[in-house]
Amino acid sequence: MKRTTLPACATFVLIATATLLAALPFQASAQQRSVRGWADGPYQVKGTGGAQSLLFEWKFLDVYCIDMPPLRPARDVVHGTLGGGAISFYRLRYENDLSAYVVTSTVPKYRSPADEYRTLLQREYDTARAVAAVASAERYRVDTGTSSFGPTVRMRLLNLGDDDPDEPFPVARPLLNAPDEPLRSLSVHRLFVHGGSRYEIAVLGVPTDGETRAALESRATRLADTMVDSLQACTAAMEAKAQPAR
């Protein structure tokens, strides 16, 4: 698991010259510091047979819940917290070269959700410009969308490196210092703010034999958008149930 950014933390980027296949040191964090080490975990959960269903249902305290689409058997789930417990982490790996992530962190009390969203969006645009200056505009693509929880930052990254155990993807996003082609990996991200928390949903994929970039991006995008819908619907229902009766 490795280094670069978080939904809460897509700050500035430091770029240095690196040798081929070395990770560019993009260091970004909402706390304006590197996130080093797990506060709790990481815990790995595996399931077979009837236990597989347990891997597709996830709830983190009273912050969010999600029903993951069971499109393929699940290899495992890894979860825990980082950054002194301020960052929650969930990853489900499918048996089809896709890994799905949900990362959350807390919005500072002095900052409104709208202000936090604008900060996230600006930081991602700044990161994309910094990457384009040393690589290509295709390596880190940013645009926007909408969801039931409000505006959403949408991103697509190409050719990511390996994880740092203390800063797992997508808390960190290590880009390889390599050309756009051949395609080694691709990730799709959705960032939004809701209920005092920042969210990042990400899908990381490796191409199957002969799979094109467009095909892999389409596959990862469908999963990411399905996760957004599921998390927001499940969380809204959980919040409504928690409301005191009038």
Could you explain how this protein is built, in words?
With about 250 residues, the chain is of the alpha+beta class. Helix content is about 25%, strand content about 35%. It has helices at about 50-55, 115-135, 215-240; strands at about 25, 40-45, 55-60, 65, 75-80, 85-95, 100-105, 140-145, 150-160, 175, 185-195, 195-205. The strands form three sheets. The protein has an eight-stranded antiparallel beta sheet, sandwiched between helices. The chain has a two-stranded antiparallel ribbon with strand order 1-10. Strand 8 and strand 9 form a beta hairpin. Mean pLDDT is about 85; it is low at about 1-35.
Short précis:
This protein is α+β, with helices and mostly antiparallel strands and 246 residues long.
Strand order of the largest sheet: 2-5-6-7-12-11-9-8
Strand tally is 12
SSE pattern, N- to C-terminal: EEHEEEEEHEEEEEH
Gap from first CA to last CA: 47 Å
Please, how many helices? 3
Supply Rg.
Answer: 17 Å
Uncertain parts:
1-33
Mean pLDDT: 85
Strand content: 25-35%
Anisotropy-based shape: globular
Q: Major sheet: size, sense and barrel closure?
A: 8 strands, antiparallel
Query: Which range best describes the helical content: under 10%, 10-25%, 25-40%, 40-55%, 55-70% or over 70%?
Result: 10-25%
Structural class: alpha+beta
